[in-house]
């Protein structure tokens, strides 16, 4: 699923006063021209908004397996003699 663009600083600064003034999420979204979901996500945790790292596929190798492979590769002789 595609991700939309994050809120910029001006939009973030506008959302909190609107919320404090009593506007609901739908009204705030209309005012700033963004979706209700992005407004809701920002209002849940304003300080943490946009800091989540997007996950990827989990690695099959553990930390020690990676180290062992690197050690084996560094110990091998060069076959281009």
From TrEMBL:
Its main location: nucleus. It is found in: Nucleus. Residues 3-51 form the Tc3 transposase DNA binding domain. It comes from the Eukaryota. GO terms for cellular component: nucleus. GO terms for molecular function: DNA binding. This is HTH_Tnp_Tc3_1 domain-containing protein. It comes from Heterorhabditis bacteriophora.
């Amino acid at each position: 699923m595609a991700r939309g663009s994050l809120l910029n600083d001006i939009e973030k600064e506008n959302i909190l006063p609107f919320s404090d003034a009593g506007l609901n999420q739908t009204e705030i979204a209309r005012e700033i021209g963004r979706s209700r979901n992005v407004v809701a996500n920002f209002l849940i945790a304003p300080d943490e908004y946009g800091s989540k790292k997007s996950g990827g596929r989990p690695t099959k190798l553990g930390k020690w397996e990676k180290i062992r492979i690197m050690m084996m590769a560094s110990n091998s002789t060069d076959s281009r003699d």
